């Protein structure tokens, strides 16, 4: 049996305590740990009911969907609630397939994180998932610049997808080029292919705006949320579209066509509403932006660049990323292992500035030590 | 009991912001709003209590708001509800150990997910990779393995494929229980066979004795992987801990969910046999192990639920009470043959196979009036839908007798309806989702 000694025992906001009793500042993103108002709301719901038997109407579910409609720009008013953001992305693709069942091609902006379900993995790392892509029988066209748009068989395209950030071949985090996005949206609208903005990792203020897609001036047809939305209490994901689009696929058939036994359960909806309450009351988008600035300024000399509460930090060619992450961990900072030659620091949306400052100091010391050591 | 907004407002919000088709169902059925749940009961906003034999198609194995599970969930919520990616909570390792001991066979890797469909998808990616020299997956007609877009490619309820264009050319469907057809489809060997050891969903069916043993032998002989989807059947629902125990077989991969949730969180897992895990470790086959599954609250809930089932002998209770329920339903089936075809199932996984969707709709309405919820197939076109009775396993014989009495009264009420009225209602049921919401709005809403 596989075991894992990377255990976590307790936490608060951006900090957790591991199995060895170490206090670690988490820079891997998300909502943050054990936010009291979220935990209290979910615990209170647990006193009334957990999952639903799905026969009667659910007030938390409907209230949550209305809340999303109030927060998202018109005409995004109809939401489907899923068990995770990853599942919600596939749900959004399913909606697009329902609109165009014979369509077989997905066009997507390359180097984004589309989640861990099968379609998401195929978009995120196409070469690693050839078997399932062949089995499912769909085609992919990756777009990284405007010339790629000419490769698309638009008549066959049933969905166009983009994330809010991309991580390029060097592992550098950046926003998508606005001109490319404009051309992508223009092409999609000509063939009535819905555009899905995947905002799972970047929602609730991570990028300095409540939703990541708001960093751009384009209006997606479908928005996918998840990640931090569950308030680090209960996983949840959503996809939201116009009332007309929802009705076209699901309005005249059994609700079971959408189908999920436990998604949209009261505990998860309450967690999400409490998380939304928190980020609105505390202006977490602004707080995330400020946290990103703290890290970027402290690590400016090392080439750090902020994108809201996320910071991309290049690694010298002689630095072993795995060893660096381990060193950082030993000193009290947890960072997800980098995909390329850049370390991505992601402040949880509820992270407190003083702890981010502390993490910045640790990273700076570690980098200086590593550079000196290398020299 | 109260709502934070008028019922009519809730219906309007439901229509616009969640599901227009569900709103049609709610308006036609004058559906109330759930407020709280406890044990075998769900209570609505008017204070009316319902005995829950729907249980979201079998989720509430240990009942609603089970005190042991609730305490574990709330304790964990207050201690540590979440871990960042790449880290685990000790409870996850405890759960892996508990499941590996509990599920018959020798188990290796266990991957946690937030839904059964996610776990099915994960297993699909795995089998297609480790069997890349092979082509094809064989599934059973009418089977259900989840409705995420990728999981739909092996959905045996084939009517859905037309709506989404999800029919996969490498999937072969064979009738459930027909071993000769399965043998033919597997031939010299395919990547995998996916099977529910007892067919769940609206087509509830217990296979002939020896069916699963034959499939195991066929898979062994052809190096085909056998995946048992025990999402509905597991954790005592079928009268044994797991349905594969009826034929005493061990699959290569086991998918678990509903009973694992403890009635509190969306949760699922895929378990890989020790043999597979040694030959093809999950970490090598799929190094990117990102998932929202395995979170501490879900693990706490699952562990508490398993302990409760074990401590209170709920598997045995399922077998005994299942017999009582099925005997009672069979007696009613004999009395109302014009409405009920038969009573399939085993353990507390049973139901009434009805002579058309109109009777399913009528039964749901009549049972609802009498304070009983049953699992509706939600398929208005089904010719022989099974209205499922999947109560919590800790339901008492007294409560089951009450359910049977209410079912008898419901059948009597339907039998009294003029044939012409039933026929007219049948037209409404078959086309109910095509009726515009504005026509269904009540006077109070207008």
Give the SSE layout.
The complex is a heterodimer of chains A (375) and B (446).
Chain A lengths: L7 E5 L2 E4 L4 E4 L9 H13 L8 E2 H13 L6 E5 L2 H15 L5 E5 L8 H7 L5 H7 L2 E5 L13 E7 L1 E3 L5 E3 L2 H13 L4 E4 L23 E4 L11 E5 L1 H8 L15 H16 L2 H15 L6 E3 L2 E5 L6 H11 L1 E2 L7 E5 L6 H22 L1
Parallel strand pairs in A: 3-16, 6-7, 6-8, 8-11, 11-12
Antiparallel strand pairs in A: 1-2, 2-3, 5-13, 9-10, 12-13, 14-15, 15-17
Helix pairs in contact in A: 1-8, 2-8, 9-11, 10-11
Chain B lengths: L6 H12 L1 H10 L3 E6 L2 E4 L4 E5 L1 H4 L8 H13 L10 H13 L4 E7 L2 H15 L6 E4 L18 H6 L6 E4 L4 H8 L5 E4 L15 H12 L2 E5 L23 E4 L11 E6 H6 L2 H4 L10 H16 L2 H22 L4 E3 L2 E2 L2 E6 L2 H13 L2 E3 L11 E4 L7 H20 L2 H12 L6 H4 L6
Parallel strand pairs in B: 3-14, 5-6, 5-7, 7-8, 8-9
Antiparallel strand pairs in B: 1-2, 2-3, 4-10, 9-10, 11-13, 12-13, 13-15
Report on this model:
The complex is a heterodimer of chains A (375) and B (446). By secondary structure, chain A is of the alpha/beta class. Chain A has 2 domains: 8-30 and 283-374, Aspartate Aminotransferase, domain 1, CATH 3.90.1150; 37-281, Type I PLP-dependent aspartate aminotransferase-like (Major domain) (Aspartate Aminotransferase, domain 2, 3-Layer(aba) Sandwich). Chain A has 11 helices and 17 strands. Chain A has a 7-stranded mixed sheet, with helices on both faces. Chain A has a 4-stranded mixed sheet with strand order 1-2-3-16. A 3-stranded antiparallel sheet of chain A has the order 14-15-17, covered by helices on one side. Chain B is 43% helix and 15% strand. Chain B has a 7-stranded mixed sheet, with helices on both faces. Chain B has a 4-stranded mixed sheet with strand order 1-2-3-14. In chain B, strands 11, 12, 13 and 15 form a 4-stranded antiparallel sheet that branches. In chain B, helix 14 packs across helix 16 (419-430). The radius of gyration of chain B is 22 Å and the shape is globular. Classes of the chains: A alpha/beta (375), B alpha/beta (446). Strand 4 (57-58) of chain A pairs parallel with strand 1 of chain B, so a sheet runs across the interface.
